[in-house]
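R.M. (postdoc): so does anyone remember the format we settled on? I'll just put the structure tokens first.
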């Protein structure tokens, strides 16, 4: 049994409250483990191992760590040229490990906070390399060159058109099942079981409207894929075997990203910054260019922070439209 995930007072090697059973502990472990996505926990674990090795090499204690140890680690890593994002991740991992084991959190120390703010000023926070939005015209070019005579082509066409029309995130696309689709007059209702803005899994329903042209209609594309895939329950977008048979295994988020990138490249669309997020970003940007109000775009993309939506998708369009360089006669 993995009891290390249970806060210290409830570990199996300590006195447990009367009546607490092994099944209780297992359920507690499962609930605590579900607090963070498995991918997040893996990143934390990697960052923690780096910190623990550094402490061992210095003869310092990693768990529990005191604030001086954390400050020394952060400044040393900064001296090695690590980015502020890397230091921020280290702090998150150290905090998580201490809270997980019910030990005092050194990241909450005032001195650690001052050091972090100082390093932020010294190092600076470089802007993230943003995915290139795939606009409506890009999507048309991409699906035009996909060979709809192959199983993979039918799948990829449906994936790209539905991803663009729905503005889903990569993990949401990867997690879709057949049961999440409801075909309605005028489009598809997509149920998102769990998402970044709905971590508790209450569920959100997103509409993907039918297209004006058959070649770029996400509804027709998904129907065509289901004719090939079949109606068995399970993952919506699945791997295709060498013989062209659609299997039951779901495409991973990484594979979906590669599909979008490769299909864009094959269509001659600049693909150096194309990822699955390009579909979502492209939806927002294309809608903004068409004059769709901000609240309608935000309702579709489910942005919690409208400033993010404006900064990445609305403002660039306004700047290009309103720039005084248009009056220079060049």
């Amino acid at each position: 049994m993995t009891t290390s995930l249970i806060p210290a007072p409830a570990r199996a090697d300590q006195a447990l409250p009367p009546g607490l059973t092994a099944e209780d502990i297992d359920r507690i472990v499962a609930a605590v483990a579900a607090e963070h996505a498995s991918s997040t926990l893996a990143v934390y674990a990697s960052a923690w191992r780096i910190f623990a090795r550094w402490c061992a090499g210095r003869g310092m204690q990693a768990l529990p760590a005191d604030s001086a140890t954390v400050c020394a680690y952060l400044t040393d890593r900064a001296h090695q040229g690590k980015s502020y994002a890397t230091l921020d991740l280290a702090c998150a991992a150290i905090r998580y490990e201490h809270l997980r084991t019910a030990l005092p959190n050194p990241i909450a120390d005032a001195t650690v906070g001052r050091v972090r703010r100082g390093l932020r000023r010294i190092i600076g926070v470089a802007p993230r390399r943003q995915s290139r939005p795939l606009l409506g015209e890009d999507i048309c070019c991409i699906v035009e060159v996909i060979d709809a005579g192959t199983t993979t082509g039918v799948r990829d066409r449906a994936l790209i058109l539905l991803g663009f029309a729905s503005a889903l995130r990569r993990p949401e696309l990867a997690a879709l099942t057949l049961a999440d689709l409801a075909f309605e007059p005028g489009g598809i209702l997509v149920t998102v079981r769990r998402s970044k803005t709905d971590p508790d899994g209450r569920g959100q329903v997103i509409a993907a409207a039918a297209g004006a042209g058959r070649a770029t209609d996400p509804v027709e594309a998904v129907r065509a894929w289901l004719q090939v895939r079949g109606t068995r329950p399970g993952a919506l977008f699945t791997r295709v075997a060498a013989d062209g048979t659609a299997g039951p295994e779901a495409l991973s988020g990484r594979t979906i990203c590669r599909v979008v990138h490769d299909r864009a490249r094959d269509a001659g669309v600049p693909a150096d910054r194309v990822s699955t997020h390009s579909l979502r970003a492209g939806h927002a940007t294309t809608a903004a260019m068409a004059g769709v109000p901000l609240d309608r775009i935000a309702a579709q993309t489910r942005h919690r922070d409208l400033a993010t939506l404006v900064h990445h998708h609305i403002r660039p369009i306004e700047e290009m439209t309103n720039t005084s360089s248009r009056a220079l006669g060049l």
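R.M.: ...and that's the designed sequence above, right after the tokens. Also worth knowing: The mean pLDDT is 86. The chain is about 50% helix and 5% strand.
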